[in-house]
Structures are given as structure tokens and as C-alpha cells.
Amino acid sequence: MITKAEELFSLQGRVALVTGASSGLGHRFARVLAAHGAKVVVAARRADKLAELVKEIEADGGTAAAVEMDVSDQASIAGSFDEAEKPFGTANILVNNAGIAKRGSVVEFSPEDWRAIMDVNLDGVWYVGQESARRMIAANVAGSIINIASILGRRVAATMAGYAVTKAAVIQMTRSMAVELARNNIRVNAIAPGYILTDINSAFFDTDQGKAMIDFIPQRRIGSPSDLDGTLLLMASDNAAGFMTGSTITVDGGHVLAFAR
């Protein structure tokens, strides 16, 4: 029997929680999951942006709710999950997307910046994933945790040491979580995006330095948020990826491979 694509990637009956959903990739992830049938809870610190996103999803025919969540505040995470469960019940898809980037040389990177990036990109991913897994297990539901890593978890770049350290750790965290949670029918995978065009970085890629970076990428372009749609749906769907756990998929136009040339 052949399962058609619309069935393979259908998320009907699923509940997804997306962190860092107020902008950027998280905003796109939430809309894509909703468009494929999931009820989506969008989470971030900016309530006004979340309210706008919920309206967008509903205008497209989807179902969504919003909850404020600061992933760097460990004490508040359980309470945020309580609020997230009120509209739709236990989330059986988690997109662990919240993250920040801070630049600074190794000798100048301040303790405050180091702690901030660890709090969000590493500790936040761990504590949110941990809370999500606990609730899936308590509800006895199969689920999928999708951690958002980066190609800087596989290579390095000057002035980005803190960010690279956290993303490398997220890749290893994904593998460790996958091993332990497999017995509970919870799959854990990660996406490692390359450079993706967003409102934050679009001006940079119009500069000479940005254009030089684009020329270095084998596909000679930077990614669009839509380039991650297929990978996201693959990891979210039990029908499409039920035997896939502990994997990190790189989506970067061949950027990482360029270092082997």
C-alpha cells in the first residue's frame, strides 16, 4: 500500500507547541504546522506578536492559541505549559526553536553575554524539552520533539563562539534525549539550518560582505524560511518519520560541504 503525500504529512489530531514563535523561523514553523492540520500553541515573550500570529493562522483556516513563555526562566516553564494545555490538551509535537545570537571575540565576550546565550540556547532547550517529555509520558502519548540547531553546531565562525557552543550542544542533546525517550514512543530530532533570510539579516546580505558569503555557498544563495518546511513536516509526522530519531538534518545549500573544497 502506498500512502499519499497529503496523508503522509497530515498532522490532523496533533497538538504542537512552538517556542520563539513571535518572529523569524518560529513564526513560519507555527503557520506550516497549522496549515497541515495541527492545533498550534505559539509561545514567546512578546504577547502582542503572538496575538497577531494567532489571527494569521485563524485567517488561513487553522487553529491556534498563544501563551507567554520565557525559556530562560526555568521556574516559569511548568506554569507556561499548564497554560498551553488549557485550549487543546497535551502537546505531542514540540518545536524547540527559541534562541538568541550574540557576537564577540573569545577574549572580549562578557560573562553576562555568555550566561544569556547559555540560558536561552542551551538551558532553555533542555528544560523545555524535559518538561514536554514529562507531559507526553504522563499523558501516555507518542510524540515528536524537534530541536532547532544550526550549521554552527557543525562548524565555527569568528566572533560566534558562544552561539556555536550552544548549537553543538543541542545536537548532542538531541541524540541523548532520543536514546532515552525512544522507549516512551517519543522521537527527538534536530534541524541544523544554514543562513536563512529573515527581516533581521536581510540588510546584511545586501552588503559586499553578505554577497561574498552567498558566493561561498555551493548553491549560490541563502535559504528562504520555506526551505525548512519539508524537513519540519518530516520530523513532526509519525507517518513520515516514525522510525527516525536522534537525527540532525542540515539544510544549508551545501554551506558546510564548502569547507571541504
Describe the structure.
There is one protein chain. By secondary structure, this protein is of the alpha/beta class. It has a single domain, classed as 3-Layer(aba) Sandwich (Rossmann fold), CATH 3.40.50.720. It contains nine helices and seven strands; from the N terminus they run αβαβαβαβαβαβαααβ. The chain has helices at 5-8, 24-35, 47-59, 74-88, 111-139, 161-181, 208-216, 229-236, 238-241; strands spanning 15-19, 39-44, 63-68, 93-96, 143-148, 186-193, 248-251. The chain has a seven-stranded parallel beta sheet with strand order 3-2-1-4-5-6-7, with helices on both faces. α3 links the parallel β2 and β3 (63-68). The radius of gyration is 18 Å and the shape is globular.
Describe the SSE topology.
Blueprint: H1 5-8, E1 15-19, H2 24-35, E2 39-44, H3 47-59, E3 63-68, H4 74-88, E4 93-96, H5 111-139, E5 143-148, H6 161-181, E6 186-193, H7 208-216, H8 229-236, H9 238-241, E7 248-251
Q: In this structure, how is the largest beta sheet organized? A: 7 strands, parallel
According to DSSP, the number of beta strands is: 7
Q: How many H/I helical runs?
A: 9
Instruction: Please identify the top-level CATH class.
Output: Alpha Beta
Assembly category: single chain
Key terms:
alpha/beta, single chain, Rossmann fold, 9 helices, 261 residues, seven-stranded parallel sheet
Brief overview, please?
This protein is α/β, with parallel strands linked by helices. The protein contains 9 helices and 7 strands, in the order αβαβαβαβαβαβαααβ.
